[in-house]
Every structure is written in structure tokens, then in C-alpha cells.
Here is the input.
Amino acid sequence: MYQLLILIPITVNITSFDEGWPDFLEAAESMDGLIRESVNRIDRCIYGQNNIRRIYSFTFQDKSSFEEALLSPPGEKAGSIIHTLTGGDVILLGGSLQEDTLDRIQYWEEKNEDS
Here is the structure.
């Protein structure tokens, strides 16, 4: 899987951002290849300096579908909207996503111990 991360800094006017967010979502959710989306609303910094208020993630099947989605008309529209909503004060990241469950990890650890 491949993921787009959108990091919204604390400097963004969150009220205006939230008002325009449905327009962004309408465009983003029209991108072919999108399989999952999520949001993390940051409410505390446990360690280090933090200037991020929210982290949105949009997951695609693979890098190719991610790239095609961003270059599509809905992807370009979503990009334009997010730029407008944040005044360009946004961080966009793309990268490979790997995830596993703790049960599966423990299963393989136990299996390796038995060998």
C-alpha cells in the first residue's frame, strides 16, 4: 500500500480550514484508487517540539495508483483546495505503508521460538 499524509500545522486557522474541508473531501474521495482515509487530531505532545495540529492519511493500493490519483482531475482539484485552505502552510508526504497486527507478530515470534 502507499499513503498520502497531510500534516496541518498549528499556524493554520482551523475554523476556516474545517469549513472548507468538506470541499476537499469531495474532491479527494473522487480519486480512483483511494481505499482508506483517517485523521489524527493531535491534542498533546508527549516528547519533543510539535507544530502539527492534525494528520490526515489517504491510503492507496500502490504507488502507481497513488501517483495516478494525484495527477487526475479530482486529485488536482483536491490539491488546489488544500493549498487554498492552508494558505500553502501544509506538509504533504507520500510513502510506502506497512502494517501488521500484534496477534500476527506474536504468532510468528512463538513459531520461531518453537523451531
About this structure: Helices lie at 14-28, 63-71, 73-86, 102-114.
